[in-house]
């Protein structure tokens, strides 16, 4: 539509210009007959000198010899063609001009009786080479724009992006919280879907973090925070979508960056190395990302439980230490797009990552019938290794069917994930009363599993005008998984299979979806968007070990409605409603047992049901910067971790179950403040009320809490162009499922300096300076189950990044379009 408007405006200007020339010359009242004048024709085609593509809407002016005044003018069409008809005989010059190109003039064009039609052939325009003066970025923080169905955090051109990674920027987005494992919460709620350029990433939380840590923030255009997604998006995702939009690579030739860094968490040292390459030539636009990393982490934890039995009470006190290291060959992400012509393009993207995990979990456990009076001690040492492989591929087509903005796109995806794991458990039992002999129990597990995911989708958009458009599309996906968990006694010379804790589980799932979405401007002040999505899920879970089969077939409808009201230039209000669902993680449906110690293990739940969410929102935006967001969510069949306590055996079995229902009412305020010219501040405040009710340990339990959090990021430009960032956060006590979560806080600080004409960036950072990011959790109810864990968030790091073409951009247009992988 934009191109059509430009063309009409150009034609209108040309008509007015030449009409004005005729009026200025005057029109006689009477004219004498004259003999017909011989005329000719001039034609040609304008293209880009490098890409060879037509340059549409080039201004072409016809000038008489020796004159700078146009006698005629026109614009090139979509094929770059132009034509002057009815040209009187004579000698002319033709001028070609377009924004971003050098003006070009062809002289000595003779239109004669012998040669009335002159074909100029191909005229090649060269890109303008005028060097712009250096512009100093004054805005240290990103700008925030509230649209009808999303909040857009603009990153491009801000100091926040300079020298940082995409992960750094995402962690500082309003209302976003990411833990050490890469799990994301939005406005205090989990169940967030992450996309790149509107395409799902197919990655686990930890692998997604690795990908974003290896991506320069300079490649980001903006982050869309979509708390109530429209019908165009998959219905999956309880709390919303974070869509990271990347810049398009518009730099001819090769550009990119190389980087390296190291972190120290006061226990372990990790490092990362990587590079990004982008290449654009003619119709090809390609990218390659490489990431080599040795990632480390761990935790120190205490677990306290009190089991109140009918005859006696058992006290359980445990101290635990965990460590992990993950390292592998380079993770490779590459792709290319090929423009068939101005309106049609095809492309592919592939991602391959394989790594080896080595981890241990060492516990000291004391049991007794009175506080601090123990009669048994267990020394349990767990060691496990796992080989993880992820192969993701996508093929894409995009067609622009007309100049009005009608588009058709299609995606085909295939994902293959495998895990090959094994673990050894060494348990040593000591009787502290002296009445029983000490003993030991050794166990071994082998847990190979894998997933194949297939998906196909098509989307169509048709605008009826600048104010109205319709979208519709369809998607089909299939998941097939094979999980063979084998548990062995390892106390003799040969392994002995334990059939009670062994399980071979197969799971197949198909999802068929279709949607329609309509948006329209109503008058000058209102914009309406309404849509409906339907998704049918057909699944079958089968345990070959127990012969248990669970089959499901359910159809869901997911409406969405958005109304944007523009009260004034500085004040607007958005109203929204959407229905969402969250399907169970595939692993959570597998009834296998994950062993941690003799008194603690985790077990899957094949009867787990999906949860549904009704989300209502009202967003007020002031001066296009300040926002106040009121949200209410009614969550049915909440999926949450539930510890089942066997009081007589002092045993705790963790599983994912359905809490009866949940309510969440929240108020979020985003307040940017410019304290001084060189000091910007971005502040987010969240206040929410969460309430859950469920049947827990044979009793009705209610868990309710007013939760509040504060997040403030200070960006300060110091002397010598040193950028300093201070990030402070506080999260008050909260409620989730059957857990009461204690408060936590942290303070991060970082410095960044650029060298070599801003090509080399040096960053130094320190995170969680005072170890306040500690996770303390307790269950509701009479029996006590508390744990206090610290995941080594305190760390210091140094990073170097060299950009061998400043301002390099990346255009991985095609990311995967599946939500299914996020549930593996």
Structure report:
By secondary structure, the chain is mainly β. The protein has 2 domains: 102 residues, Immunoglobulin-like, CATH 2.60.40; 571 residues, Beta Barrel (Maltoporin, Chain A), CATH 2.40.170.20. It contains 4 helices and 46 strands. The strands form 5 sheets. The chain has a 31-stranded mixed β-sheet that branches. The radius of gyration is 32 Å and the shape is elongated. The two termini are 42 Å apart. The relative contact order is 0.12.
- The CATH topology name of the largest domain reads Maltoporin, Chain A
- Our estimate of the beta-strand percent is over 45%
Number of strands: 46
Query: Judging by the overall fold, what is the CATH architecture of the largest domain?
Result: Beta Barrel
Keywords: Cell outer membrane, Membrane, Receptor, Signal
Protein name: TonB-dependent receptor
Pfam families: CarboxypepD_reg (PF13620), OMP_b-brl_3 (PF14905)
Subcellular location: Cell outer membrane
Characteristic key phrases:
membrane, disordered N terminus, elongated, Beta-barrel_TonB_sf, CarboxyPept-like_regulatory, 2 domains, 5% helix, receptor, mainly beta, 824 residues, Maltoporin, Chain A
Short synopsis of the structure:
The protein has 824 residues and is mainly β. It is built from four helices and 46 strands.
What's the arrangement of secondary structure elements?
Layout: H1 2-25, E1 39-48, E2 59-64, E3 70-75, E4 81-88, E5 90-97, E6 104-111, E7 117-125, E8 143-146, E9 151-154, H2 166-171, E10 176-178, E11 184-186, E12 192-196, E13 199-200, H3 205-213, E14 220-226, E15 240-246, E16 253-264, E17 269-281, E18 284-308, E19 313-327, E20 331-339, E21 344-370, E22 373-400, E23 407-431, E24 439-446, E25 449-463, E26 468-489, E27 496-497, E28 503-522, E29 526-543, E30 549-568, E31 571-582, H4 586-589, E32 593-597, E33 600-603, E34 611-622, E35 626-646, E36 651-676, E37 679-696, E38 699-718, E39 722-731, E40 734-736, E41 739-741, E42 744-755, E43 760-767, E44 775-779, E45 784-790, E46 795-803
């Amino acid at each position: 539509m934009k191109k059509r408007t430009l063309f009409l405006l150009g034609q209108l200007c040309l008509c007015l210009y030449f009409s004005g020339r005729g009026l200025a010359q005057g029109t006689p009242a009477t004219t004498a007959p004259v003999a017909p004048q011989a005329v000719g024709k001039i034609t040609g085609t304008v293209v880009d000198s490098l890409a060879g593509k037509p340059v549409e809407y080039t201004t072409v002016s016809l000038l008489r010899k020796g004159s700078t005044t146009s006698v005629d003018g026109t614009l090139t069409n979509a094929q770059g063609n132009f034509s002057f008809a009815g040209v009187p005989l004579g000698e002319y010059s033709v001028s070609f001009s377009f924004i971003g190109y050098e003006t070009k003039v062809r002289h000595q064009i003779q239109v004669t009786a012998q040669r009335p039609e002159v074909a100029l052939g191909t005229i090649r325009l060269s890109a303008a080479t005028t060097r712009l003066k250096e512009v100093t970025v004054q805005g240290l923080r990103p700008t925030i724009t509230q649209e009808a169905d999303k909040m857009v955090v603009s990153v491009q051109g801000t100091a926040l992006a300079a020298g940082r990674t995409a992960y750094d920027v995402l962690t500082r987005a309003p209302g976003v919280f990411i833990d050490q494992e890469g799990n994301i919460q939005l406005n205090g709620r989990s169940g967030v879907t992450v996309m790149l350029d509107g395409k799902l990433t197919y990655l686990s939380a930890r692998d997604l973090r690795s990908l974003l840590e290896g991506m320069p923030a300079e490649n980001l255009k903006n982050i869309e925070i979509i708390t109530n997604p429209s019908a165009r998006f998959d219905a999956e995702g309880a709390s919303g979508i974070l869509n990271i939009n990347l810049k398009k690579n518009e730099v001819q030739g090769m550009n990119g960056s190389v980087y390296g860094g190291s972190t120290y968490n006061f226990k372990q040292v990790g490092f990362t190395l990587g590079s990004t390459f982008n290449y654009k030539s003619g119709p090809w636009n390609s990218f390659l990302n490489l990431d080599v990393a040795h990632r480390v982490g761990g935790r120190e934890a205490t677990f306290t439980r009190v089991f109140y039995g009918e005859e006696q009470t058992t006290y359980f006190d445990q101290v635990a230490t965990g460590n992990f290291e993950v390292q592998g060959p380079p993770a490779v992400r590459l792709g290319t797009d090929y423009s068939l012509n101005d309106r049609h393009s095809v492309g592919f993207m592939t991602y391959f990552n394989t790594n080896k995990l080595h981890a241990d979990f060492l516990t000291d456990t004391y049991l007794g019938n009175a506080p601090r009076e123990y009669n048994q001690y267990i020394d349990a040492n767990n060691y496990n290794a796992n080989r993880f492989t992820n192969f993701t591929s996508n093929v894409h087509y995009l067609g622009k069917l007309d100049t009005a903005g009608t588009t058709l796109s299609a995606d085909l995806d295939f994902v293959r994930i495998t895990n090959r794991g094994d673990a050894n458990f060494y348990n040593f039992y000591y009787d502290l009363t002296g009445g029983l002999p000490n003993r030991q129990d050794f166990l071994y597990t082998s847990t190979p599993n894998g997933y194949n995911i297939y998906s196909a989708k098509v989307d169509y958009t048709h605008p009826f005008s600048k104010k109205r458009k319709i979208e519709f599309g369809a998607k089909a996906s299939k998941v097939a998984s094979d999980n063979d968990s084998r548990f062995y006694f390892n106390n003799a010379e040969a392994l002995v299979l334990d059939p009670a804790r062994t399980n071979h589980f197969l799971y197949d799932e198909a999802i068929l979806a279709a949607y329609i979405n309509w948006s329209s401007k109503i008058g000058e002040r209102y914009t309406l968007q309404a849509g409906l999505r339907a998704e049918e899920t057909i699944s079958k879970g089968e345990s070959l070990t127990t012969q248990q089969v669970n089959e499901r077939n359910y159809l869901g409808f997911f409406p969405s409605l958005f109304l944007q009201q523009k009260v004034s230039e500085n004040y607007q209000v958005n109203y929204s409603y959407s229905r969402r669902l969250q399907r169970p993680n595939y692993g959570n449906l597998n009834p296998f047992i994950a062993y941690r110690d003799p008194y603690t293990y985790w077990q899957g739940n094949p009867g787990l049901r999906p949860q549904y969410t009704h989300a209502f929102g009202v967003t007020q935006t002031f001066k296009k910067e300040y926002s106040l967001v009121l949200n209410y969510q009614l969550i049915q069949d909440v999926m949450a971790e539930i510890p089942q306590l066997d009081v007589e055996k002092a045993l705790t079995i963790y599983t994912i179950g359905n809490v009866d229902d949940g309510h969440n009412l929240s108020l979020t305020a985003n307040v940017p403040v410019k304290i001084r010219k060189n000091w910007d501040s971005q502040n987010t405040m969240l206040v929410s009320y969460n309430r859950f009710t469920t049947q827990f340990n044979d009793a009705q339990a209610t868990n309710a809490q007013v939760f509040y959090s504060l997040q403030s990021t200070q960006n300060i430009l110091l002397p010598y162009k040193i950028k300093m960032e201070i990030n402070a956060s506080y999260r008050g006590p909260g409620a989730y499922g059957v857990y009461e979560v204690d408060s936590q806080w942290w303070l991060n600080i970082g410095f960044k300096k650029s060298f070599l004409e801003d090509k080399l960036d040096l960053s130094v950072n320190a995170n969680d300076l005072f170890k306040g990011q500690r996770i303390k959790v307790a269950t509701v109810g009479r029996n006590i189950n508390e744990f206090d864990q610290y995941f080594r968030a305190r760390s210091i790091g140094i990073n170097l990044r060299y950009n061998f073409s400043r301002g390099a951009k990346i255009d991985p247009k095609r990311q995967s379009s599946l939500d299914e992988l996020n549930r593996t």
